[in-house]
C-alpha cells in the first residue's frame, strides 16, 4: 500500500534559530498519524544536522534535503553529495524542483544522474514534475509531464522505482496562490500513475505515492487529498508556518 506524505520544502528561508523554532512548533501541534502516513521536512543544507537532532525519536517525521549533486564527490565547489546527505541522517531528497530546472538550468540528463546518486546512497527521492502555464494553455500538459518522468526515471529498475515518490507541481500554481482544481490534479495524477504502470506494471504504480504541489494550504488540502490518486502534498510557503503546515498534515488524516 502506498503511503500518504506531506513534505515541507523550506526553500531558501529561515535562519538556524527560526528553523529550530518552527520544528518545535510543528512537534507541539503534530497529530497522531497512522502507519501509512508520513511527514517530511526539507530545510536548507545548513539546517540538516540541527533538524536531524530535533527529529530524534520522532517516527512520523522524516528529514529531507532540497537537492543533491549529480556527481559522487570531487572538485565541485559548493555542491553537496548524496553520500554527505546520507551521513547527515537525511532520508529523502527532492530532485527536479521547477526552481532547480528553471533558475539553475538542471536538465533531464542532470536530473537522471542526481536520481542515480540519491538511490545508490540509500536515499528516497521526491521527483518533481510539472508544466508551465503556456503548456497548460495549449492543453499539452500530459505529454509534457510524461516526458519529464520518462527522462528522469525510466532508466530505473523495478526495485529502484520503489524508492521514488513523484510530486506533480504545475509551475503556474507554485507560490502564486493559484491552485490546480482537484479535478485538474486528479486527472494529472491518474495520468502519471498510468505512465508508471505502462513501464513498471500496475503493482508498482499502485504503490507509488504521487504528491500534489502548488499553493496547497489548509483550506484546499482536504479536497485535493480526497482525490483517489493524490497521496499528499509537497508544500512550499505554507510549510513555513507551523499552524498552516499542521493544518495540511491534518488533511491527510
Ligand atoms: C513548491 O515550491 O514545491 C511549492 C509547492 O510551493 P508553494 O506551496 O509555495 O506553492
Question: How many domains is the backbone divided into?
Answer: 1
Share of helical residues: 40-55%
What's the story with the biggest beta sheet? 8 strands, parallel, barrel
Spatial order of the strands in the main sheet? 1-2-3-4-5-6-7-8
Strand residue percentage: 15-25%
Mean pLDDT: 97
What can you tell me about this protein's structure?
Helix 1 (16-29) packs parallel to helix 2, helix 1 (16-29) packs across helix 12 and helix 5 crosses helix 7 (141-153). The protein has a single domain (4-252), classed as TIM Barrel, CATH 3.20.20.70. It contains 12 helices and 8 strands. It has 253 residues and is of the alpha/beta class. The two termini are 16 Å apart. The model has no long low-confidence stretch (mean pLDDT 97). The structure holds phosphoenolpyruvate. Phosphoenolpyruvate binds next to strand 8.
Concise structural overview:
By secondary structure, this protein is an alpha/beta fold. The chain is built from twelve helices and eight strands.
Q: Can you give keywords for this protein?
A:
single chain; 253 residues; alpha/beta; TIM Barrel; globular; binds phosphoenolpyruvate
Topology record:
Blueprint lengths: L3 E6 L6 H14 L7 E6 L5 H8 L5 E5 L16 H6 L4 E4 L2 H6 L4 H13 L3 E6 L3 H5 L3 H13 L4 H4 L2 E5 L13 H19 L1 H6 L2 E4 L7 H5 L6 E4 L6 H10 L2
Parallel strand pairs: 1-2, 1-8, 2-3, 3-4, 4-5, 5-6, 6-7, 7-8
Helix pairs in contact: 1-2, 1-12, 5-7, 7-9
The protein binds phosphoenolpyruvate.
Amino acid at each position: 500500500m502506498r503511503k500518504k506524505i506531506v513534505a515541507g520544502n523550506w526553500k531558501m528561508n529561515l535562519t538556524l534559530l527560526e528553523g529550530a523554532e518552527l520544528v518545535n512548533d510543528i512537534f507541539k501541534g503534530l497529530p497522531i498519524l497512522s502507519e501509512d502516513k508520513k511527514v517530511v521536512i526539507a530545510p536548507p543544507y545548513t539546517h540538516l544536522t540541527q533538524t536531524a537532532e530535533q527529529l530524534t525519536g520522532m517516527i512520523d517525521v522524516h528529514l529531507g534535503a532540497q537537492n543533491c549533486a549529480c556527481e559522487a564527490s570531487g572538485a565541485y565547489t559548493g555542491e553537496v553529495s548524496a553520500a554527505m546527505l546520507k551521513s547527515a541522517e537525511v532520508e529523502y531528497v527532492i530532485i527536479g524542483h521547477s526552481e532547480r530546472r528553471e533558475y539553475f538550468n538542471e536538465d533531464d540528463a542532470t536530473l537522471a544522474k542526481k536520481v542515480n546518486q540519491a538511490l545508490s546512497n540509500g536515499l528516497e527521492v521526491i521527483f518533481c514534475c510539472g508544466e508551465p502555464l503556456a503548456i497548460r494553455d495549449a492543453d499539452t500538459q500530459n505529454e509534457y509531464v510524461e516526458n519529464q518522468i520518462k527522462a528522469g526515471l525510466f532508466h530505473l529498475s523495478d526495485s529502484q522505482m520503489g524508492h521514488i515518490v513523484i510530486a506533480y507541481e504545475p509551475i503556474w500554481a507554485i507560490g502564486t496562490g493559484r491552485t490546480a482544481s482537484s479535478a485538474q490534479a486528479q486527472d494529472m495524477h491518474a495520468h502519471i500513475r498510468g505512465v508508471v504502470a505502462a513501464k513498471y506494471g500496475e503493482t508498482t504504480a499502485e504503490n507509488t505515492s504521487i504528491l500534489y504541489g502548488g499553493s496547497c494550504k489548509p483550506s484546499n488540502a482536504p479536497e485535493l487529498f480526497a482525490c483517489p490518486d493524490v497521496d499528499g502534498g509537497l508544500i512550499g510557503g505554507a510549510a513555513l508556518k507551523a499552524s498552516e503546515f499542521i493544518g495540511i498534515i491534518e488533511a491527510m488524516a
